[in-house]
Amino acid sequence: MTQSLAQFDPEIAGSIACELARQQNGLEMIPSENFVSLPVLQALGSILTNKYSEGYPGKRYYGGNEFVDQIENLARERAKQLFGVSHANVQPYSGSPANQAACFALLEPGEKLMGLHLTYGGHLTHGWKINFSGRYYQAVQYVTGKDGWLDYDALAKQVSDEKPRLLFVGATAYPRIFDWEKLSVISKSVDAYLVADISHIAGLVIGGVHPSPIGFADVITTTTHKTLRGPRGAMILADGELSEPMKPPPEKSRKYLPTMIDRAVFPGLQGGPHNHQTAAIAVALKEAAEPAFKDYAAQIVKNAKALAERLLEHGFTLVTGGTDNHLLLVDLTNKRIGGAAAESALDRAGITVNKNTIPNDSRKPYDPSGIRLGTPAITSRGMKEDTMRWIGDKINEVITDHADAERITRIREEVRKFVEDYPLYPTGT
Ligand code: DSN
To answer: Coiled coil where (predicted)?
Structure first.
């Protein structure tokens, strides 16, 4: 118990050190990634991982949970205050389990749900055919228009025809704002539960640069590690009454959504919560409540818009023509390079992105026509609009000269030098 990681397991310690250097020496532009603070890292790497605490604060199936209860209560209270809801469950291990719990709480097996098609920017858990959501429920998928914009009239018609019990709204590759009021009217027209999956945009919602679904959606699910800049994890938020913890609610209805959600998470789907993760979520929520977080969220969007402008000047095609949030979906069709080759060339230049399908893509998901770019992580490093123009130039150079290995190596060196001005973590973190 006294040896350090480096002493006991130099292979793993070595790989972690290399990954730190990779993060430090490159430009991290995957829109769902971010860099957590040292306080968040410390909570996540703490002795809380040693403790079992199945149940909820005040009603556990294990002794010794006095301090874990304090931590989970703090995390729940901070989430409730920050988002303005009456109930928060902070135990889902990550986004997919959170969406699974939302389905488990709201639907009976075989009932109908609707969600945005994966290849149009949706998520696996919103009804994809081989995911639990497509196998245990009757899943209907909706798509964006060919221009990439969500077509609210078409969605209203499809919802009216299909009459789902649950409507998922949320995306992994949608560069525009969601109109929650319209979506609420659409879901209410057939008495469907509206589940807003704000995993990508939670930090923007808190920062006031994306409209909040609170008051419009019945249930809100979110991961905690994207724009919210916490550890990997998730939360489920809802308004309503919490009847006795873990016992069935007096009735299954909107009034008792908190009870339905808590029962779905535990004992419905999960065992012991990951207390180290809960503590790190609590710390991240404290950070997100600080005034500086609003500036951060606003800067993410300013940066995405500046990057979009520069890429458009270089002749890139952006799905929907630009962005209102933290991400850009680039259609590479006119650049004579596929998404996989672009991802690989950018990776070699120290710019980490991911290949992505575009609406109505003629290519396959493993080598689609697009790439997805995001600004949350580079904004956490303090980069501003002028930097985005420089990055846009480098992306253009890599895509144009992707077959020229020497050129890519030279750009790699330029990127390495460039990021030296934006230090990330102290060595040895
Ligand atoms: N993996 C997430 C993303 O990259 O958007 C979605 O789950």
So the answer is: none
Task: Consult the annotation and say whether 123 binds a ligand.
Answer: yes
- 5 within domain boundaries: no
Q: Check whether residue 169 and residue 297 sit in a common domain.
A: no
pLDDT of residue 321: 98
Asked if residue 116 and residue 53 are part of one domain, the reply reads yes
Nearest ligand 1 atom to the CA of 96 is 7
User: How far apart, in whole angstroms, are the C-alpha atoms of residue 30 and residue 140?
Assistant: 28
pLDDT category of residue 428 using cuts at 50, 70 and 90: low
| 256-280 residue pLDDT tens | 999 999 999 999 999 999 999 999 9
Q: Are residues 207 and 336 in the same domain?
A: no
Instruction: Flag whether 207 is marked binding.
Output: no
Q: In this structure, are 97 and 216 located in the same domain?
A: yes
Return the CATH number at 237: 3.40.640.10
Contact assessment for residue 113 and residue 131, using Cβ atoms and an 8 Å cutoff: no
Pocket residue to mutate for ligand 1, from 168, 172, 221, 326, most atoms within 8 A of Cβ: 172
Are residues 275 and 342 part of one domain? Answer: no
- C-alpha 395 – ligand 1 centre gap (Å): 22
Domain termination site, one of 288, 307, 328: 288
Please provide residue 175's backbone torsions phi and psi, each rounded to the nearest 5 degrees: -85, 15
Strand bridging mode 138-142 / 193-197 = unpaired
Q: Is 372 in the pocket of ligand 1 (CB under 6 A)?
A: no
Q: Are residues 97 and 159 located together in one domain of the fold? A: yes
pTM over 0.85: yes
**Residue to probe by mutation, ligand 1, list 28, 29, 94, 123, most atoms within 8 Å of CB:** 123
Asked if the structure places residue 428 within a domain, the reply is no
Question: What sign does the CA torsion over 107, 113, 115, 117 have?
Answer: positive
Summarize pLDDT for 321-357 with one digit per residue, the tens: 999 999 999 999 999 999 999 999 999 999 999 999 9
Strand (E) or helix (H) holding 88: strand 87-89
Domain that holds residue 104: 42-288
Q: Give the Å distance between the CA of 245 and the centre of ligand 1.
A: 31
Residues annotated as catalytic (active site), given as ranges: 52, 54, 197, 223, 226, 232
Q: Are 373 and 353 in contact (CB under 8 A)?
A: yes
Ligand 1: centre distance to CA 95 (Å) = 9
Domain at 366, CATH number = 3.90.1150.10
Cβ–ligand 1 contact at 172 (below 6 Å): yes
Beta-bridge partners for 169: 196
Q: To the nearest whole percent, how much of the chain has pLDDT over 70?
A: 99
Could you say which DSSP state residue 137 is in?
S
The answer to whether the annotation marks 244 as part of a ligand binding site is yes
Which of residues 288, 306, 328 is at a domain's end? 288
Predicted confidence (pLDDT) at residue 426 exceeds the cutoff of 90: no
The Å distance, Cα 44 to ligand 1 centre, comes to 21
**95 Cα nearest atom in ligand 1:** 7
Span 136-152, mean pLDDT? 97
